[in-house]
Amino acid sequence: MQHARWPVIHLLGAGSLGLVIAAGIHRVAPLHLIRRPGHWPAVLDLELVGDDSALTCRLPQSGADQLSEPVTHLILCTKSYDALAALDALGQRLDPGAKLLLMQNGMGSQARVLQRFPQARISAATTTEGAYRTAPHRVVHAARGITRIGALNQSDFDWVSLFRQAGYQTEPVDDIRWHLADKLRVNALINPLTAIHRCLNGELLDRPALRQALEQLGAEADTLLEAEGFRFPTTAARQAAAVARSTARNRSSMLQDVTAGRRIEAADITGYLLDIAQRRGLPAPCHQALYARLRQLDSARKPDQTGSG
Ligand code: PAF
To answer: Which helix (H) or strand (E) is 241 found in, with range?
Structure first.
């Protein structure tokens, strides 16, 4: 193992994507998984299933309360609604000048983290890597994608080289907020519709009523994001349709959350668009109706099931 160059990297948020990232980074850097407070075996024996192979890796782990060293370099892979609380729970173990990489969907959690941790060096990432879990210790790395990383403040850590060494196709970007917004508009169209109608991504294109809903949601998202200063080369509907086509057999992350009884990650996706609408006095009736349906789905959920551990 080639660990000389990198400091200890902590990773918080052991969901399917977090574990895929952890497994890659573990090959090139000393990596430690931070779990919810509790008693964890010292090592997670993870089975990672790829296209034509399965490998087992042993990832060191502990609850935050058992960490023996300060957290100076942290990849945060929690759901967006857990991000701030997960960092707060680290308390004084989080070095004030820590280098953080935020990998949350949507927009909103990043601004909350920036505000709460002004001395931290903060970057954010968007990724199209796809993963799902088939058992607590078994993750399928379903799609190879691109990870884009950019600084949100005066970040000075080379996350891009670390990710590349770990085997992930990674691009540095100057305006990560634009990339977050670009991903958000796709998620705001595909995820709620697939979660509510319990369908695969590709069915959004095949079923006329859903295709029409996609177009209407897209037109609203275009107006809202443009009012916020974002410019994109394609419309949201066209972009979402292209993604739905290329991921036609996938179950979106929101559909997976609904099916597993987990909390839905809507506040920083649809909720972010509705905040723009409210601030700027713009109508967004389709996103509003969708948000109401998502909140109904969320309140029907059993209260003990939350995000990743
Ligand atoms: O959240 C997801 O599931 C994915 O970001 C996407 C692009 C919608 C594909 O399933």
So the answer is: helix 236-246
Domain with CATH 1.10.1040.10 in the chain: 178-300
CA of 48 to the centre of ligand 1 (A): 20
Nearest ligand 1 atom to the CA of 183 is 5
Q: What is the pTM of this model?
A: 0.94
At 275 the three-state DSSP class reads helix
Opening angle at CA 99, ends 97 and 103, nearest 5: 140
Q: Which fold has domain 178-300?
A: N-(1-d-carboxylethyl)-l-norvaline Dehydrogenase; domain 2 (1.10.1040)
| Cβ pair 148, 171 in contact under 8 A | yes
- Strand pairing of 9-12 and 71-76? parallel
Residue to substitute in 103, 127, 200, 247 for testing ligand 1 pocket (most ligand atoms within 8 angstroms of CB): 247
Paired tokens of 104: 């949350």
Residue nearest to atom 4 of ligand 1 (CA): 252
Which pair of tokens denotes residue 98? 């820590």
**Rg of the chain in Å (alpha carbons):** 19
Span from the CA of 252 to the centroid of ligand 1 (angstroms): 5
Please check whether the domain covering 9-174 is classified as CATH 3.40.50.720.
yes
pLDDT digits (tens, 9 = 90+) for 9-58: 999 999 999 999 999 999 999 999 999 888 899 999 999 998 778 889 99
